[in-house]
Amino acid sequence: MYRILIRPILFRFDPENVHHFTFKWIKILAKLPGFSRLCRALYDVNDPRLEREVFGLKFKNPVGLAAGFDKDAKLFNELSDFGFGFIEIGTLTPVGQEGNPKKRLFRLREDEAIINRMGFNNGGVQEAVARLKKNKGVLIGGNIGKNKVTPNDEAVSDYKICFEALFPYVDYFVVNVSSPNTPNLRELQDKKPLTELLATLQTENQKRPLPKPILLKIAPDLTNEQLLDIIEIVQDTHIAGVIATNTTLSREGLCSPNKSEMGGLSGKPLTHRATEVIRFLHEKSNGSFPIIGVGGIHSAQDALDKLDAGASLVQLYTGFIYEGPSLVKAINQALLARMR
Questions:
Q1: Is 267 annotated for ligand binding?
Q2: Mean per-residue pLDDT for 216-228?
Q3: pLDDT tens, 47-97?
């Protein structure tokens, strides 16, 4: 129904406006008696065989919603009704910011992809905290970044502020240094600044009676040598794992007329590269840390391929927009079918 009826209508309008429109109507519908129950009946696959224990957390199933969709933690309770095992909010920054000028979100229909140059638009970490206090049992990841105006040599402070504010309200953290839409942010992926950032957050983490998993989200555009550095950094700083991957700057093989828009590309064109990065990290690290696989998952087979490559969990974003919530159900059903 989504692909045949709903998507063609939504895709007639500006994607950012559609995003806000959809959030508004899901909020309204969720207040109607029985709507949440209906969503769960349609999309939620409730089976203990789908449960996964990863970096000390118990996930009801391995399919999550990636960061960027519910940036400000406005809809995580309602989105969980579509069958997700976990929801990642953010990227959040210490102070709210508008992000980059509009228009900044583009559908590449012929390629089943999206280009975004949002620029960490969000209301700030404290606004999200106020909403997270109303969590009804959803497993939440907190994706954190730095404000655009914060220079890289002061970035650690921004990440610490977000870490401290979110600590009581999220189950795991994701350090985002891989978005291509904040100027110079990806320079923090270099070995020295990244090691310093992660070590600082781990020091703060270990001061807590119950530390929480910290993960690093990386770009798909890293070379093999840089990926080997990532493995070394993860092992040296003892963070919990890696999310592979963020959006790409590559435009190879695209055919959509708006393929040259600036920003990060997500969707089907990223499918192979994201899986390739997962496999490289898993094999070269001898599976020494968990990986959450994200990038170009538009079918159950795409998700299975990432799990087979070494991912412990997967996340959806662009595939969810193109395929709808039935994709979550299809992945979980495919996993159960493998167990027969």
A1: yes
A2: 96
A3: 999 999 999 999 999 999 999 999 999 999 999 999 999 999 999 999 999
**Could you give the C-alpha distances from 88 to 66, 173, 251, 334, in angstroms and in order?**
5, 9, 27, 23
* Closest C-alpha among 305, 209, 258, 228 to residue 104: 258
List, for residues 297-312, the tens digit of each pLDDT value. Answer: 999 999 999 999 999 9
Answer yes or no: is 47 a known binding residue. Answer: no
Find out whether 264 and 240 touch, Cβ atoms under 8 Å.
no
Sheet holding 113-116, edge to edge: 105-108, 113-116, 264-267
Strand stretches in 186-312, DSSP E? 214-218, 241-244, 264-267, 291-294
- Residue pair 221/250 in contact (Cβ under 8 Å)? The answer is yes
For residues 201 and 175, give the distance between their C-alpha atoms in angstroms, rounded to a whole number. Answer: 9
153 by Cβ neighbours in 10 Å (0-12 / 13-18 / 19+) ranks as exposed
What residues act catalytically?
179
Please tell me the predicted confidence (pLDDT) of residue 340.
Answer: 82
The answer on whether 280 is annotated among ligand-binding residues is: no
For 230, list phi and psi in degrees, rounded to 5: -60, -45
Q: Among candidates 334, 224, 215, which has minimal Cα distance to 276?
A: 224
> For the residues 195-205, what does the mean pLDDT come to?
97
Determine whether 41 is exposed, middle or buried from the number of CB atoms within 10 Å of its CB (0-12, 13-18, 19+).
exposed
The answer to whether the predicted template modeling score (pTM) of the entire model surpasses 0.85 is: yes
How many independent structural domains does the chain possess? Answer: 1
CB atoms within 10 A of CB 284: 14
Say how far apart CA 236 and CA 240 lie, in whole Å: 11
**Domain harbouring 233, CATH code:** 3.20.20.70
Let me know the angle formed at the C-alpha of 135 by 131 and 137, rounded to the nearest 5 degrees: 165
Q: Which amino acid is at 167?
A: F
Q: Is the pLDDT of residue 1 over 90?
A: no
